[in-house]
Design a protein that fits this description.
The complex is a heterodimer of chains A (205) and B (256). Chain A is mainly α and 205 residues long. Chain A is built from eight helices and two strands. The longest helix of chain A is centred in the C-terminal third of the chain and has 30 residues. The mean pLDDT of chain B is 87. Classes of the chains: A mainly alpha (205), B mainly alpha (256). Chain A: This is Cobalt/nickel transport system permease protein.
Chain lengths: 205, 256
């Protein structure tokens, strides 16, 4: 969900940039020598995941997977998703430059929050229950992201209120799909190699 | 290097356009200044001048015209919807009515202003910064005092984008060979989830091998950035030209 340049008020743009710098500082702190390659490659993986289109009705949507990013990367989701958005803006013309802070905040803050809330759940002994937590993470992150986008629009002007409501309603099917995809991904990771979820924690597995 | 990000793939023999011989830092700063100036103005003459300047910059960078313009106008669906709704949500004198809904001049104007700003900024960004190698962007950001860990993360991401994308391509081919076709079914969403999960598992295993290989070669957490970025006289000329353009944009905005 990329907001473009020129749509938001200066206060929102500056506020978003300041908060994103804070998030980046927190996220970068944990990127030590041991974790840098893993973080970089996982960041690339989430970039590729965002290029995947899944069918929805007669059309298709691209995945965001920020919930899963939060589960795997923790606070490092901030710099990882920022790098992705920067590359998308510069090389794909997607999003914008002055809104980079707001866009990063909208995607990465929900990722980090969801990661904190669901990190115990996805470690549940039963992979099926872990997958349910994965579904919650996938849907919850998109719901929060949509909410953040709506708030950014609302704070910028009264005339955006209908658009903000529409953004939220039109993303409900996407929340469902991201939940399903994220649940399946968590289930598979639990079955194949659960250390993925601990890859960026204090002691590398 | 990166084919996924490479809009500007050039042959070895082809001479670099003048714009691309500028120092990468000059181009990044120019793009940022342009974005701030365009977001600050609201007059149509100023916005028009900015758009023309962005188009000329694209031509000077010799980017493929149609592909670049297509990327410029691509926006998220909800942004397009928002722009289309603005004439109907902004109060003001009525321009026309559509199925009984009045559209205001003020709303039309606001939608046009946002569209012009967004497209001009993105076009200038792609022409100035997107026309160089992604790794050069990383080096230039490091020289502009962006924290080195963030730059390293960017360089790692760029380095492995194509690798992961090819891995994704192999997995998709394997799925296709087994008769998978994306539909509106639970099976599709589950398969997509497994696909992403598998990508992550393989990515992590790859990163462990890479870390070991890098340690064997003496990696200490620092990637020495070898480059010879240097401001030259032409950077000064370009900066003067660009500053003049931005001042003209601002002057047009505040002149009656």
């Amino acid at each position: 969900m990329h907001i473009v340049d020129g749509a938001l008020s200066s206060a929102v743009v500056i506020g978003g940039a300041v908060l994103t710098v804070g998030g980046l500082a927190l996220g970068v702190r944990s990127l030590t020598l041991e974790k840098l390659p893993a973080a970089g490659i996982l960041s690339a993986t989430f970039f590729v995941a965002s290029l995947i289109h899944v069918p929805i009705g007669p059309s298709s949507v691209h995945l965001i997977m920020n919930g899963l990013a939060g589960l795997v990367l923790g606070w490092s989701a901030f710099p990882a998703l920022f790098v992705g958005l920067l590359l998308q803006a510069v090389f794909f013309g997607f999003g914008g430059l002055t809104v980079l802070g707001v866009n990063t905040l909208n995607i990465a803050l929900p990722a980090v929050l969801i990661g904190l809330v669901c990190q115990q759940g996805i470690r549940h002994a039963n992979p099926r229950i872990a997958a349910l937590w994965g579904a919650l993470a996938g849907s919850g992150a998109i719901a929060l992201t949509t909410l953040c986008v709506a708030v950014a629009l609302l704070l910028s002007g009264q005339e955006f209120i209908p658009a903000a409501k529409l953004v939220f309603l039109s993303h409900i099917p996407i929340m469902v799909i991201e939940g399903l995809v994220c649940a399946a991904a968590v289930y598979l990771i639990r079955r194949v190699n659960p250390t993925v979820f601990a890859s960026l924690e204090g002691h590398p597995a | 290097m990166s084919s996924l990000l490479g809009l500007a793939q050039r042959g070895e023999a082809e001479p670099l356009p003048v714009l691309c011989r500028l120092d990468p830092r000059t181009r990044i700063i120019a793009a940022c200044a342009f974005a701030v100036a365009m977001v600050a103005v609201h007059d149509f003459r100023a916005l028009g001048l900015g758009m023309v300047a962005a188009l000329l910059t694209m031509a000077a960078a010799r980017l493929p015209v149609m592909a670049t313009l297509k990327r410029m106008v691509m926006m998220d669906g909800f942004i397009i919807f928002m722009l289309l709704m603005l004439p109907f949500t902004v109060p003001g004198p009525v321009a026309f009515t559509l199925w009984g809904w009045p559209a205001s001049w003020a709303g039309l104007q606001q939608a046009a202003v946002i569209a012009l700003k967004a497209n001009a900024v993105v076009l200038a960004l792609m022409a100035l910064v997107g026309s160089q190698e992604p790794s050069t962007l990383g080096h230039a950001l490091a020289r502009l005092k962006v924290p080195v860990r963030l730059v390293h993360l960017l360089l790692f991401t760029v380095r492995y984008l194509d690798v992961i994308h090819q891995e994704y391509g192999r997995l998709r081919v394997a799925m296709k060979m087994r008769g998978f076709r994306p539909r509106n079914t639970l099976h599709t969403y589950r398969s997509m989830g497994y696909l992403i999960g598998m990508l992550l598992v393989r990515a992590l295993e790859r990163s462990e091998r890479i870390l070991k290989a890098m340690k064997c070669r003496g990696f200490t957490g620092q990637l020495p950035l070898l480059d010879d970025l240097r401001y030259r006289p032409r950077d000064g000329w370009f900066a003067a030209l660009w500053l003049g353009l931005l001042l003209l944009v601002l002057a047009l905005n505040w002149s009656p």
